[in-house]
Structures are given as structure tokens and as C-alpha cells.
From TrEMBL:
This is Glutathione hydrolase proenzyme. Its EC number is 2.3.2.2, 3.4.19.13. One of its GO terms (molecular function) is leukotriene C4 gamma-glutamyl transferase activity. It catalyses: an N-terminal (5-L-glutamyl)-[peptide] + an alpha-amino acid = 5-L-glutamyl amino acid + an N-terminal L-alpha-aminoacyl-[peptide]; an S-substituted glutathione + H2O = an S-substituted L-cysteinylglycine + L-glutamate; glutathione + H2O = L-cysteinylglycine + L-glutamate. Keywords: Acyltransferase, Glutathione biosynthesis, Hydrolase, Signal, Transferase, Zymogen. The keyword Mitochondrion does not apply. Residues 1-25 form the signal peptide. It comes from Luteibacter jiangsuensis. Belongs to the gamma-glutamyltransferase family. SUPFAM superfamilies: N-terminal nucleophile aminohydrolases (Ntn hydrolases). PANTHER family: GLUTATHIONE HYDROLASE, GLUTATHIONE HYDROLASE PROENZYME. The keyword tRNA-binding does not apply.
């Protein structure tokens, strides 16, 4: 068990974290930087782009712009400038933590009826494929915002690697080509998508070079004009006309109205660590905080694996119940956050947990299921000065809507499916929302994205993952592993499990539990179900005792790409 320092000690030690209701930035001493930088992303070209920009004098925020925009070129199945992101920034100079909400918004003409089939069930084709599934993108505005407010370099410098790779081309890896295979029927529906991803009408073979001149031009307009280069002018005109020709409902006004939001991150203290994480419109931070608050009343280290896992599953079950019920876009709905985040509320929930018996979810008042894939992406950065970025980016499902707006090279997201389009009915991740997450013009759809920092007296972690609803539990388990003293590669390799209230079952990665533990859990009433795949976690850690950085990417991904989580000394 790691020694738990008091917050007074932590506050006067080498760094300090500021969250909601905490000391102001002015009270915070500057931290000593690690003197080198670490980046863990899902693709080596993106990681290299981050280091390229650091070498040009950029900071972690410039590197984050470079990594994000390069992922938008080389890992388009997961994120892109037709999508959105949520990022947590830590400024070493004043200790401030900031949450950048570049989540997509519903267009003004959003009409819930189009997402309901004749049988009253969600029409998954409309909500996940084609232009009606796309929210107004947030990523371009978010990148411009980050460069302008936090970076040291002009946006054009940080976008340069992505533009170069889009022009010169790159060889997509097996994962990229596999997702084209998965989505080929939808990609084939739209000529501009087929022209890029299905050359000669077929899924390309490995060794194929993908050059994207339209995407390079779109990124250049963003580089030169900032957000206006995407949300106004030529790119905006192309996006709106392509969307409308294909049956979409976007207008120029929707694009012009898009705004990035800076929000106060959520903060939760657990066993001497401070976790800084995503606020709504992500549900992740609230759920992670609830689970940690519940678990703080137990000493998990005194329990065997079956019993500590049982309590964690029970905490997950209760946190996900609240997720369905209460959470949505804070600019549109009032949420009982004070209650959900309070220790007293957690005390009440803890009291309903039996030490050795599963609580059937339908015994808890009200409601959620899912299949995480390899889409959506997370990267973590720490620079030599100690600035940090945890950023999770998404177009939702693989290649988002599958729809490329002609002339832009931009794949539009299918984030509309993250709204509760048909109340009480599951979305693609089995999440069943309520009115709080119903679509409305300009509203942000609820997300599970949970970019997080974990601050301890001795060590700090930057952590996050894709995985739909399992993002929350994967990040939670990563946080617990870090607090248990695990290294970056142990955290990313650790076997995972997940419970989301409904369906009432524990999704388990092969090898997570030995036979005896699985039997004990089953005897307690838990239904265990094997599940695969599990996210793509990218973690960077900083040990303040030695000042060493460590970076690791998820070993589950057969990338053949070499080491994508790297630590480098940057001059
Ligand atoms: O924002 C969200 O919660 C989802 N759009 C994330 C999708 C995702 O992680 C897909 N990957 N497995």
C-alpha cells in the first residue's frame, strides 16, 4: 500500500493540483519539470509528430495539437477533424488544470423522429451511418483553441506534420485496413468515401499508400485562418452542401455557431491521491468519482481478489445506474452533481452493498450494454517543463458515419448515436439514456470519454482509453493500478473487467480472474461473460523521486508499429 500523504503535505511539495473548489492557481507553486518529454499515442507517426513539434520549441499543448491532427490523418477510423475530443490540460507554470470540451453538438434541425424505426426501436442505420448521424465537429475548433490559448507555437507549425503526411501519404497499418473491411458496405455508399478508402472498389491490401490531398487542403485552411478556416468559408460550404446532398440537415449557421467550452475538471481524493478527471458532458468523471468514493470506505488491500473485485463491481453498478438517469450537457440540463459527488451519497450507496453477494441491477431503482472496439483514441503527454495533456478523441464508431464530405477529405462522425435518441433504448454501447441526454439543437451528446490525471506525492499519471462505455471502467481500473504502485506498462497490460448496471453482467477479459476467483464471484451471484476487445490505453507516468518519465501503450493492439509510447529528451 502506498503511503498516503495529507493534502497539506502534498500542497507544499513539488507540485499541486487545482480542481473545482480548490486553491486558486495563484496559490500554486510552479513544479520542477522532468527535463524530458513522454508521449503515448495509438500511432508512431502521431507520437513522432508530437516530438517534432516539441523539438521546434513547442510545449505539451502544441504537441497535443500535432498528435491529434496527425491521428486525424493516420488513424481516421478512430478520430478526426470531422469529430470531437475532450482533453485535460495541466499547466506547470501555475498548476492549473483545465478541461477542454471540443465535443460535437446537435445541428439546429435535429429531429428525433428520424432515428426511430417503424417498430419504435432505434434506427441504428440512421443514427450511426451517413450525414444524419453526424454532430457538428468540435475537433478543429478545439485544436485552434488549444494552440491559441496554451501553445507556444502558431497553429500552422503544430499542424505541419499532419499536413505533410496527408500530402505525401503513409502506409496504413493492418488495424486501419481491418476497420475499412468492417465498414466497407457503408463506405461504399458514399462516392467520396469510396474514392479514398476503397480504391478500385476494393479494400486495399497492406502496403497501400494513402495520400489525402483534400484533407491536406482542409487542414491548411485551418492552419492559415484558425477555426474560421473550417467553420466558415470554403470548407464550411463544402461540408454543408455535401451533407445536404446526401440527406443531411446541417446549415452554415450550425457550423458558425460551434464554440469550444472550457470547463472546470472534476476532482476526487482517494487514498492520498488526487484524481482530476472529465466533467459533464462526459459521464466518465462522475462515474469514476462515485466508484472511488464508494471504495474509499473499504480497505481493498485486506481482501482477496474475488472480494475486492466484487466490491468494485458493485460500485460500478451503482455509478452506471446514475449515469443513465441524471447526466447530459451541463449547458442544457441541471444535474445533481453535488449529490452524486458527495461522500455522504457514497456512504449511502456503500451501505446497500452486501460484502459477498451481488445486488441484482433490477433491485436498484431504474437503468444500460455494449461492445467496445478499436475506434476512438487516447493519448497522453508530459513535456520537459511538466505540462501535461490527457486527450481522448473520437468520431464514435469506426470511421464515424462512414461519410466523407466531397472535396474536404473529412470523415464525419456518428456521434448523434451517443444521445438518448429513443429514451430508455440502448445506443451502440448499450447505454440507455433519459431526458437529460435527449438531443436538442446545439446540445452536446453525453460521452464516456475520461481523460484523467492522478496526482500523488511521489508519482503522477496521465491516463485514458477508448472503449465506449468501458472507457470509464478501464480508466478507473488503470487509476487503481497506478495507486497500487504499478508501472505504465503494467497498467496498460492489466486484464480488465466491466459492469455497467444493465445488462446485469460482468464483462471479463480472458485471464482477468483465475478459476477460483471466477468461481467465488459466480457463487456470489455475478454473471461473468468473456469479452474482447478492450480499449487502447495510452499512459504516461512521472516519478517525482527520480524525476523519471515512463510511457506505455496498450499491448493488446497488434500494431507492428514499434514503440508508440516513447520517452525522449528534448533539447
Ligand atoms: O464519446 C463517447 O463516449 C463515445 N463516442 C466513444 C466511442 C468509443 O470509445 C468507441 N470505441 N470503442
Amino acid at each position: 500500500m502506498i503511503h498516503a500523504p495529507s493534502w497539506r503535505v502534498l500542497a507544499t511539495s513539488l507540485f499541486l493540483v487545482v480542481g473545482a473548489g480548490q486553491a486558486t492557481a495563484k496559490d500554486v507553486p510552479a513544479s520542477r519539470g522532468p527535463g524530458q518529454a513522454a508521449i503515448a499515442s495509438a500511432n508512431f507517426l502521431a507520437t513522432n509528430a508530437g516530438f517534432e513539434v516539441l523539438a521546434k520549441g513547442g510545449n505539451a499543448f502544441d504537441a497535443a495539437v500535432a498528435v491529434s491532427s496527425t491521428l486525424a490523418v493516420v488513424e481516421q477510423q478512430s478520430s478526426g477533424i470531422g469529430g470531437g475530443f475532450m482533453a485535460l490540460l495541466h499547466k506547470a507554470s501555475d498548476g492549473r488544470n483545465v478541461f477542454i470540451d471540443a465535443r460535437e453538438t446537435a445541428p439546429k434541425a435535429v429531429d428525433m423522429k428520424v432515428y426511430v424505426g417503424k417498430d419504435g426501436k432505434p434506427n441504428r442505420d440512421v443514427s450511426t451511418n451517413g450525414p444524419l448521424s453526424a454532430g457538428i465537429p468540435g475537433e478543429p475548433a478545439g485544436l485552434a483553441w488549444m494552440a491559441e490559448h496554451y501553445g507556444k507555437l502558431p497553429l500552422s507549425a503544430s499542424l505541419a506534420p499532419a499536413i505533410r503526411i496527408a500530402k505525401e501519404g503513409f502506409q496504413p497499418d493492418a488495424r486501419f485496413i481491418g476497420t475499412i473491411e468492417d465498414r466497407k458496405d457503408v463506405l461504399a455508399r458514399y462516392p467520396a468515401s469510396a474514392a479514398i478508402y476503397l480504391p478500385d472498389g476494393r479494400v486495399p491490401a497492406q502496403g497501400w499508400t494513402l495520400r489525402q490531398p483534400d484533407l491536406a487542403t482542409t487542414l491548411e485552411r485551418l492552419a492559415v485562418k484558425g477555426a474560421d478556416g473550417f467553420y466558415k468559408g470554403e470548407t464550411a460550404t463544402l461540408l454543408v452542401s455535401a451533407s445536404r446532398v446526401a440527406g443531411g440537415n446541417w446549415t452554415a449557421a450550425d457550423l458558425e455557431a460551434y464554440r469550444v467550452k472550457e470547463r472546470e475538471p472534476l476532482t476526487v481524493d482517494y487514498k492520498g491521491y488526487r484524481i482530476v478527471t472529465a466533467p459533464p458532458p462526459s459521464s466518465g468523471g462522475v462515474a469514476i468519482a462515485e466508484v472511488l468514493n464508494i471504495l474509499s470506505g473499504f480497505d481493498l488491500t485486506k481482501l482477496d481478489l474475488a472480494h475486492s473485485t466484487h466490491l468494485t463491481i458493485e460500485a460500478m453498478r451503482r455509478a452506471f445506474r446514475d449515469h443513465n438517469e441524471y447526466l447530459g450537457d451541463p449547458d442544457f440540463v441541471k444535474m445533481p452533481l453535488d449529490m452524486l459527488l458527495s461522500k455522504y451519497y457514497a456512504d449511502g450507496l456503500r451501505a446497500t452493498i452486501s460484502p459477498d453477494k451481488a445486488t441484482p441491477s433490477d433491485l436498484l431503482p431504474t437503468a444500460m450494454s455494449a461492445d467496445p472496439g478499436m475506434h476512438t483514441t487516447h493519448f497522453s503527454v508530459i513535456d520537459a517543463d511538466g505540462n501535461m495533456v490527457a486527450s481522448t478523441l473520437t468520431v464514435n464508431l469506426e470511421f464515424g458515419s462512414g461519410f466523407v464530405a466531397k472535396g474536404t477529405g473529412v470523415v464525419l462522425n456518428d456521434e448523434m448515436d451517443d444521445f438518448a435518441l429513443v429514451p430508455g433504448q440502448p445506443n451502440a454501447f448499450g447505454l440507455r439514456g433519459a431526458l437529460a441526454n435527449a438531443p436538442e439543437p446545439g446540445k452536446r451528446m453525453l460521452s464516456s470519454m475520461s481523460p484523467s490525471f492522478v496526482f500523488g506525492a511521489d508519482r503522477t499519471a496521465v491516463i485514458g482509453s477508448p472503449g465506449g462505455s468501458t472507457i470509464i471502467t478501464q480508466v478507473l481500473e488503470g487509476i487503481l493500478a497506478f495507486i497500487d504502485g504499478k508501472s505504465a506498462s503494467q497498467i496498460t497490460a492489466q486484464k480488465r473487467y466491466h459492469h455497467q448496471y444493465l445488462p446485469d453482467r460482468v464483462d471479463v477479459e480472458a485471464g482477468a480472474f483465475d478459476e477460483a476467483t471466477a468461481k467465488t464471484l459466480t457463487d456470489m451471484g455475478h454473471v461473468l461473460k468473456n469479452r474482447s476487445p478492450w480499449g487502447f490505453m495510452n499512459v504516461v507516468t512521472w516519478d517525482h523521486r527520480t524525476n523519471a518519465l515512463d510511457a506505455a501503450t496498450d499491448p493488446r493492439r497488434p500494431s507492428g508499429l514499434g514503440k508508440v509510447g516513447t520517452v525522449k529528451s528534448v533539447p
